[in-house]
Structure formats: C-alpha cells, structure tokens
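Review box. Two proteins, two foldings.
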Amino acid sequence: MTVRAASARVSDRATTRLARVLLSIAVLATVSIAPGARACGFHDPASVNLGMLNLAYPDALHVRTAVWMAQRDALLPRGANAPSDPSSVEFRLEAMRRYRDAVAGLDALRERMTPMDGTPRFAVVLIGSMLWTRFEPSGGQVAMTPHATGPLPDDVVVVTDVPVVLALLDGTLTPAEAQARGLVRLYGPPRPRAGVASLFDRLRAPPRARADDPARLRAAAATPTPGTPGRAT
C-alpha cells in the first residue's frame, strides 16, 4: 500500500468517526431541548436528518432507494399515504399509530431471535422515520429498548425500514435476501457485524397466521415524512 493510499484510508476513517460524533451531538442536543422526549420522524418530522446518518454510516441512504425499488416491484408491502399536513391532528394520530405498529413489529422480530453466547448488542434504525431501537442479547434472550437516543459506541448499527421488518415477519423475505438486495445494511467491526448477521440468519420461522397476526402493521410501511427515495429531506 502506498503512503498516499494509507493516508486516504486514515482520512476516511477519521471523517466517519467525526460524522458519528456529530450525529451523537445532534441527537443529544434534541433530547436536551425537549427533556424526556427522543425525537424521531414519527413524533417530529423536522428532526429527520438523513444526510447526517449517511455521513456517519456511508451509503445508508441506499437502503431507502432499495426499499422504494422493492415496493415498486411488489416485493415489499406499501402503506397508505400519511396525511400531508404535519400540524394537523390527523397527521399526529396517524404518526402515533405508525410508531406503535413499527415498535410492535420490531418486538415481534425480537421474539424470534435466538442469540448465542457472545452475540453483540446492536441498534436498528428505521431510515424512513429515523427511529432508533437498541437490542441487547443476554442469557439466551434479547432485551429491546425502543425509541432510543441512538446507538452506544460499541453497538453494531443495522439500517433498514418498516416494510423490510414486515416482510421478514411474514416470511416473504429472508434475512439473506434482505442483505443481498441492500434492504438491510450493517455497520461495525467485521466480527461483531458477522455476529449480528448470524443472529438474523437464525430467525425462527414465522408462526401460522392468527386472527391477531400483525398484518395491520403493513399500514406502517408508509413513512410519516415526505421526500424522494434516496434523498435527504
């Protein structure tokens, strides 16, 4: 490796670290302005900063484009459009419902995880709403913290979106297919990243359909913030 190439790699790593620090500062600033509240697109559409996410986790925005393409090709579910006025009561009620359904979907996914000794902790961000949820494997189970302020320093970061979670739940998409199509992206050191990928690969098969099966969660597939797929809003 040449000195120039080595310097470029060091510079890229430094830029990525700086972006992640800035992302953390931005999240903490939001929390300090509104104590007790952790902003995401479901609760505050103006808080979504996809550009900062993409800087911290290179090519994260590609997930948004991959989801749009999969929906276009009928590989992923589409949801109804959200009310257009963020200040309206209807918009806020719909956003609350979608938040509740998104968290329920993540929790249903958690219940099908079978962690092994040493499975690393990780944080999932739903790119449509910038909703962060942390997962901590321990004792053969996985604890989940929804609406987290963001990942902790050693967390593997998983970037995906609600329609992908729904497809994984109903078995129409496998974790391997999701990663191959760019619908899920993992960030972190190679070994922890491989551990989280293995955890998703071992998801238990979906149960038989029930009357209370979360098919209604498909409505959460439409994100509460407008914008063109693949572009920051």
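Next protein.
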Amino acid sequence: MISTSTRVPVLSVLRTTAAVLSVRGRYQPTSRQWETPEPTAFEVRHFMHGINIPDRHLILQAIQAPETLATAQAVQAWARALDDVPDTDQYRAALARITSSEYVPLGRHFNILVSAVDAYERDQHRRAVADAIEWARQHSRHQGRIGERLTLTLTCDSHTPLTDRQYGYHLQSRTLVRLTDDNHNTYVWMATARDLPRPGQRVQLTGTVMQHSQRHGIQRTRLTRCRWKAATN
C-alpha cells in the first residue's frame, strides 16, 4: 500500500498527469471512481510508484516530450497566479497553496494537484473562446443585401447539430455551420445537407443572404440555399 505521507515533486506530478491525459484521455475525478475508467489521480499515483497501468510505455514516451514539460510548467505558473481569481474561488486558492511548495504528499492535496492540468486546459479554452468572440465583435460586419446571391471564399469554423425538424413522417436533420471570410466577417448557414465542409476547411460557397442578425454582439450574415466546393486557394 502506498503511504499518503510520501512526498513527490509538484512539477513531476503535473508532468506525469499531462502525459497520462495525452495518452489515456480526459480527466477522471475521484468523485466518479465507480465508473469503468480509473480516476486519473489513481493512474498518476500508480505510475509514479512503478505499478503497472495500461499504456505505460506510451506514457513514458509522452513524459519525455518537450511539450509535456512545457504544459506542466504552464499549469504550475497558472495555478500559482491569483491576480484574476475571485477571493471566493476556494479551488484556485487551494491550488495556489499546493503549487507554492516544491513537493506534495500523496493524500487529498495530490488529487487536487492532478486535477489542475484539466482545469488549466478548460480555463485556456474559455479564454480562447472569449478572445475569439471579442475579436469577432470588433471585426465582423454584415455582408451583402437581403436576397443577394453571393459567392465567397470562406473557412468553416464549426458545426452545431440542431433539433431535427419533422414533416409528416419525414425527419429533416439540421446543422448550423459557422464560417468566416478573410476579413473576419461571420456567416451562418442552417444546413440540411449531409455533405458539409469540415471545420478548418477552406471552401468556395455560393449562397443567398437571408438575414442580417447579431449574437453575442457579433454581426452575422445568414445564408441559405448554399452550395459549396473545396477552395483552390
């Protein structure tokens, strides 16, 4: 049995956690330990004590990768910084206390430290989304006139599945496709087609301007009756 009083380096825990997550998947908290996936804290603890776990050789390789060390260092710096953190955020306050030391015991604080990598990645994602929304607010403008047919070179940003629409006995699937042009203008297409551009794909799209709308302060041009093909430039 592993003693919970044993102390291990904080940076090593973060580095091992980043490697485990890259190989084994998303964070699994101890609060859901009855589920089939083993909690990430258990896997990290077992790995650091030489106990065999699935994909151990792949985790060893991932630990040696420079990007894994960079992630661990970034998580440690993020956890220690409380400049933008509300005083009521007890989780971040606990993380700051734990990462202020060079070592952590293999008890409750160890589990909290392991969770920091996933918390950091979620925080970075939220910040990236907020930055993208603010950028779009500043740059996106309505394009074309209502009813005008436009041919545009766009980049597909994302797909969002919508509720199916029923016509009698027929169900029509719908997907909201978000696209941007090179001038950062935002377009949306309520697609019923199955053949859709992949997120990140550059396309040449022809569609009719149906509506000029706004969401989260972002001016959006809604297109309908769209046809597309892969862009050549």
